Amino acid sequence: MATKNGPLLLAYGRDPYFDGWPDTLQLNNGNPHLQQAMIGELERIADQCKGVRYDMAMLVLSEVFERTWGIRPDLFWPKATGSVRRQHPGFLVIAEVYWDMEWTLQQQGFDYAYDKRLYDRLREQRARPVREHLGADMAYQNKLARFLENHDEPRAASTFAPKVHAAAAVLTFLSPGLRFFHQGQFAGRRTRISPHLVRAPEEAVDGVLAQFHELLLAVLRQPLVRDGNWSLLECVPVRADNTTSDNFIAFRWVPAPHEWMFVAVNYSPQQSQCFMRAPFAELAGRTVRLQDRLSPAVYDRPGEDLRARGLFLDVPPWGYHVFDAMD
């Protein structure tokens, strides 16, 4: 574009792999004055709210910007997040991020980064990759934003079959990190809409999904899933010729002595059995009551048995338990 100050190059915002987005205009993050102006804008926003989500936050990373535009800017995010927190110490910044750059953005000042990897593995409907992902270091996991849908992804109710949907939700939202929900998700909305449209078709509430989310949210309101300690649990075969224990993903929350929450999900399309290990010395000599928070089931089990061989589970396809355990 010709201007009185000479030619002006305008470009759509884009990432290195696809054409530009026609509703955006690219800013030159290689310009130090532009970076300062953007930090000032962030500080202005922080005067009005408690946090922001940055769309495609990794595009501003120096190496990504250089690969896209041939210009290597100074580091931006450490300056931006540091500056806003000096004025607003509790301000939250969340990164929409892909390409395995979650840890990089966490290290550059983001409180949370999208966990697209967990979402993708849940869509593949195989337990082992999900379990391996949840085995990552807690310093990393505690700063991930877990989700089953957002404005860029299809609606969860249209992506997952009903039983798979519930199992995936138990795994996603009872894992550590930020629980990230989308408008209409609890009601089972199926139509994905553009955020630019700002309206949506009328849809009937999915009563089964709404009831499930009501129960799940009641569990999430418990302090132990915010303040407790989380860890994966081992699931072992019930006998040598039964390999279905590999279909389980199990973990526990421990908020206080003699109080636990055990979560076990058979993330597979087949009936599966296992012993879920519960190697806690405190269980010895006690009778432990297991009350399922997502069903009416209640079981009493000798603590010594739980400690010695684990909790026997025989769970239908895509089945799950969320046990409050107390003596």
List keywords for this structure.
12 helices; 327 residues; six-stranded antiparallel sheet; plasmid; Immunoglobulin-like; 31% helix; alpha/beta; Alpha amylase; single chain; GH; five-stranded parallel sheet
Shape: elongated
Largest sheet: 6 strands, antiparallel
> Per CATH, what is the topology of the largest domain?
TIM Barrel
Q: What is the CA–CA distance across the termini?
A: 74 Å
| CATH homologous group name of the largest domain | Glycosidases
Strand order, sheet with most strands: 8-10-11-16-13-14
pLDDT < 50 stretches = none
Structure classification = alpha/beta
Provide the β-strand percentage band.
15-25%
* Number of helical segments with 4 or more residues: 12
Percent helix: 25-40%
Rg (C-alpha, Å): 23 Å
According to DSSP, the number of beta strands is 16
Count of separate structural domains: 2
CATH architecture of the largest domain: Alpha-Beta Barrel
Order of helices and strands: EEHEHHEHEHHHEHHEHHEEEEEEEHEE
- The average pLDDT score comes to 92
- The CATH class of the largest domain, by name, is Alpha Beta
Task: Describe the protein's architecture and organization.
By secondary structure, this protein is α/β, with parallel strands linked by helices. It has 2 domains: 2-226, Glycosidases (TIM Barrel); 228-326, Golgi alpha-mannosidase II (Immunoglobulin-like). Helix content is 31%, strand content 22%. A 6-stranded antiparallel beta sheet has the order 8-10-11-16-13-14. Strand 4 (92-95), helix 4 and strand 5 (112-114) form a beta-alpha-beta unit. The protein is elongated. The protein starts with a strand and ends with a strand. Keywords: Plasmid. This is Alpha amylase. InterPro entries: GH (IPR017853).
